[in-house]
Amino acid sequence: MTKRYKILLGVLILILSTLVFFEANQKEPVNWFPSYSNKDKIPFGTYVFFQELEKKASNLEEINVPPFEFLKYGGIEPGTYFFIGNSLMFDKAEAEQLLSWVDKGNTLFLASNNISSSLLDTLKLSQKSRVRKNGLENFPQYNLVNPRLKSDSLYAFQKDKEIIHFNEIDTLNQEVLGLVQIKDENLKKPEDFINFIEAPFGEGKILIHSSPEVFSNFFLLSKKQQYMYTQKVLSYLDMNVAHFYWDNHYSGGKTFNTSPLYILLNNRYLKWAYYFVLIGALLFVLFEGKRKQKSIPIRNPLKNKTYEYTQTIAGMYLERSDHTGIAHKMIDQFYLDLRQKYHINTQANNTNLISDIAHKTDHPYEDVKELMDYLQLQQQNTAISKEELKDINHKITNFNP
Questions:
Q1: What transmembrane ranges does the database entry give (predicted)?
Q2: CB-hemisphere CA count at 13 Å for 238?
Q3: Among 150, 154, 217, residue whose Cα is nearest residue 180
Q4: Under a CB-based contact definition with an 8 Å cutoff, are residues 348 and 356 in contact?
Q5: C-alpha span between 146 and 164 (Å, rounded)
Q6: Separation between Cα atoms, residue 389 and residue 321, nearest integer Å
Q7: Which of 91, 205, 281, 305 has its Cβ near the most Cβ atoms within 10 Å?
Q8: Among candidates 182, 187, 143, which has minimal Cα distance to 160?
């Protein structure tokens, strides 16, 4: 290495060391991600709320699987099912499972800015967002309707945030429990919007709150005793219920990334050490590895022969008139499509398998049962004719999973 290169390398190391020093001494930025996870201590986490809820709920149980799986196979007992998250997007089958459970006399509590249309349509509800028309900042303010719970002063969320409210409800069957408004000093009486309702369903009830931020660490740790509002909201729930289920699937607590690189890059000091090693390796390649390696001859990449291979195999089956082999391969491919596209366990017993396929493909139960019985019969057939092969292909194609 020449003297000039050594000087340049020393200057680069000095610059990098200075950058690392200033980066390491910067204040860690606040993470405002709305996780609503009971493990997160960030502003929009629910660590504080969950710790207090554990003291009040006699039988609190965390659920880490999707509601559809828990309600269908988990042997769930009567009680209260609590959901909180920035977005609760239940699919049609999952919403039906939840409503069926509520119909038996149970309580469902949902706190979210965005709730799936499949559930809102069933309850005849509609959500809408709103911001100030004459200002840049939006500070939501909350209160309850019940005179015994209503406060003389509003509970404010001290951060700019749009409000999500219900603009349509079933007024004949549903009860308004809470209101929200946008703080505006220019108006003598700001407009109130509905953000907390109770919707009876069958023998049970559903409580829906469109402002999940009132359960966050940021709101509960405010110096203005904002936690009183959250306590009043919880007064609508029976804390002594036999089973109180807390959902972790939609709240953001269902996953935890343990990748070494993820942990490395999320630590400021390890991240810069990692970058420093990479830059050092790059400098070594530029200055030390230059002209020390012979030129590498160009080699054309191997061509993809998958299509030709498939044609060859298919031709072999056709030439041998192996209709039975083709039919069995076709049925195996059908089961593979069910596993990959709909995540259906095809090893389940026949009754559960047919029920899962019917729920997730929107095909009638009887049609699914007829097809599955037919395919199982053909799998046992050791001599399938050409006409039977065409019939199998026709039934699978028309089913279109």
A1: 272-289
A2: 14
A3: 154
A4: yes
A5: 21
A6: 11
A7: 205
A8: 182
Closest CA to 109 of 35, 38, 210, 227: 210
SS3 (DSSP) at 43: coil
Query: How confident is the model over 227-238, as pLDDT tens digits?
Result: 999 999 999 999
Burial group, residue 157, by CB count within 10 angstroms (0-12, 13-18, 19+): buried
Nearest to 196, CA basis, from 253, 125, 254: 125
Closest CA to 163 of 226, 113, 93: 113
User: By the 8 A CB rule, do 244 and 60 touch?
Assistant: yes
3-state SS string for 67-114? HHHHHHHCCCCCCEEEEEEEEECCCHHHHHHHHHHHHCCCEEEEEEEE
377: CB partners within 8 A, 6+ apart: none
Residue 290's pLDDT band (cuts 50, 70, 90)? low
pLDDT in tens, 72-102: 876 678 899 999 999 999 989 999 999 999 9
